[in-house]
Amino acid sequence: MKQYSLSEVCGLIEDLIAMETGTYWVRAEIASITERGGHCYIDLVEKAETGLLAAKLRATCWANVYNMLRPYFEQETGSHLQTGMQILVNIEIAFHAVYGLSANIIDIDPKYTVGDLARKRQETIIRLQDEGVIDLNKALVLPTIVRRIAVISAESAAGYGDFCHQLQNTYQFDITLFPAIMQGENAAKSIIAALDAIADQEEEFDAVVIIRGGGATSDLTCFDDYNLCNHCAQFPLPVITGIGHTRDVSVLDIVANKALKTPTAVAQFFIDEREHQALRIQELLRRLQQTAERQILIRRHRLEMLAQRIQMLSPERIYKMGYSLATVNGKIIHSTADLHKGDILTTHLQDGMIQSSVLY
């Protein structure tokens, strides 16, 4: 019976794999990903239609390759490698007598991932449309004057600082921060939690602002998350976004009441709205003053006309025209039938009265 040393067996395996294998383009989902010492370690999985694992493979992208592939991938996809992402990678299978079997990533096709991200994004949009919620938040009307603003952002984010700085020394705004993670695989859940906290006290706010400034566009995939977008679409307060990107419009931007490019643009929007309302109030006051003055002139003219009519109809003027007024016992005489023999008739003239007696 021929015997082999362990190293000899490992050598045979290594030679066999080297002869029988080359490189393979593999479609898979990232189950987990970690970076250590410049290297990237990825657990690749394939899931059956039932959701159960059909295959799993630990793959490594060594630093000399990863440092080239990562920026290329992020530039092309607008996203970084992350859990749950579908990727197409070129894998080289190797075997080492000490380290065992390894799958080394030597290339990646970002177009595959771009297609998958676009597909998921479009599925989210269609789902929101089919559910009839995609335009619900847009239908909400911002208050005439927005003063109480709930802000969702990372507390230390430059975008939040820019937003607050832009509003300083302008009109009075009451800003309440609801901290959240604004990038990565936990961002969507964190933002939803902040929205829930705002909803618990919605009567204390006029609007909600979701802002994120700076950083790479590779951190923006969370804003296409269905659960987050659905939450915002049905939120009871107007949601305004300023998540700091110009390359694409996220699904969150689509469902928001108003979407602006940056946190400072959101702040300027509120300032402009307040200035517009201030000018509108000034114009209304001016028009009210003009209307009041015009009404006073009209009323004064009417009083003057009434005074003239009263003067025209005054007894003194009538007396001056030669008319007189006859009374019996203080009652005006309209007809001879009002008189009786012996009545004392009083005739009123311009300069006095004459009394006479009725003889027949």
List the helices and strands and how they pair.
Elements: H1 6-20, E1 23-36, E2 39-47, E3 53-61, H2 63-77, E4 86-96, E5 100-108, H3 110-130, E6 148-153, H4 158-167, E7 174-179, H5 187-199, E8 207-211, H6 226-233, E9 239-242, H7 251-255, E10 258-260, H8 263-312, H9 315-320, E11 325-328, E12 331-332, E13 344-349, E14 352-357
Parallel strand pairs: 3-5, 6-7, 6-8, 8-9, 9-10
Antiparallel strand pairs: 1-2, 1-4, 2-3, 4-5, 11-12, 11-13, 13-14
Helix pairs in contact: 2-3, 4-8, 5-6
Order of secondary-structure elements = HEEEHEEHEHEHEHEHEHHEEEE
Helix content: 25-40%
Strand arrangement, major sheet:
1-2-3-5-4
Q: Which band does the percent of strand residues land in?
A: 25-35%
Task: Give the class from helix and strand content and strand pairing.
Answer: alpha/beta
Count helical runs.
9
- The outline comes out as rod-shaped
Q: C-alpha Rg, in Å?
A: 44 Å
Quick one: how many beta strands? 14
Textual characterization of the structure:
The strands form three sheets. Strands 1-2-3-5-4 form a five-stranded mixed β-barrel. It has a five-stranded parallel beta sheet with strand order 7-6-8-9-10. A four-stranded antiparallel beta sheet has the order 12-11-13-14, with no helix packed on it. The chain has helices spanning 6-20, 63-77, 110-130, 158-167, 187-199, 226-233, 251-255, 263-312, 315-320; strands spanning 23-36, 39-47, 53-61, 86-96, 100-108, 148-153, 174-179, 207-211, 239-242, 258-260, 325-328, 331-332, 344-349, 352-357. It is of the alpha/beta class.
